[in-house]
Design a protein that fits this description.
Elements (H helix, E strand, L loop, with lengths): L4 E7 L4 H14 L7 E6 L6 H5 L3 E9 L2 E2 L1 H15 L6 E8 L4 H14 L2 E2 L4 E4 L4 H20 L3
Parallel strand pairs: 1-2, 1-3, 3-5, 5-6, 5-7
Antiparallel strand pairs: 3-4
Length: 156
């Protein structure tokens, strides 16, 4: 049996709705058809460089706060950036953003940091903006499943 790959989900979920999104990402990534992927969810204030260095792909989730990523997500990047810089190049990643406004500033900020890390996007950023919709849950679950299925199939 091949060694299991590791998908790390780091998501800031300060509200009931954002917790639904984080749970959906984990649920999708843990789909019963995906056999060779271990999924770990860690809130950004608890995740550190070792978690990133040990994963094969990462899914990041954040709220839009004042037109920027959450402070917790920024803190995560501050702590992992230099310890991971030379060791995680081309790490496959995905992002989901829960934005009350348009999410533009959040996307730009995250892309700048991630481009410095030289990580590789799996797909476009999932932007869940405006009034909360049930579809956001389905889209986030699908993103989690896509990330894990890609790892399971050896696509990335």
């Amino acid at each position: 049996m091949p060694q299991k790959k590791r998908l790390l989900i780091v998501a800031h979920a300060p509200s009931d709705n954002t917790r639904l999104l984080a749970d959906a990402a984990v649920r999708g990534a843990s789909h019963s058809d995906i056999e060779n992927v271990d999924v770990t969810y860690i809130p950004p204030l608890q995740a550190g460089p070792d978690d990133v260095l040990q994963c094969d792909a990462i899914l990041l989730g954040t709220t839009e706060n004042f037109g920027y990523m959450s402070g917790a997500m920024k803190d995560f990047f501050d702590r992992i950036y230099y310890p991971c810089l030379e060791y995680t190049e081309a790490l496959p990643y995905g992002i989901f953003i829960r934005a009350g406004l348009d999410g533009t500033g959040t996307q730009i900020a995250m892309k700048k940091i991630i481009s410095g890390l030289k990580w590789s996007p799996v797909q476009d950023i999932l932007l869940c903006h405006g009034e909360f919709q049930e579809e956001f849950i389905n889209q986030t679950e699908e993103l989690g499943m896509t990330m894990a299925a890609g790892l399971d199939a050896g696509i990335f």
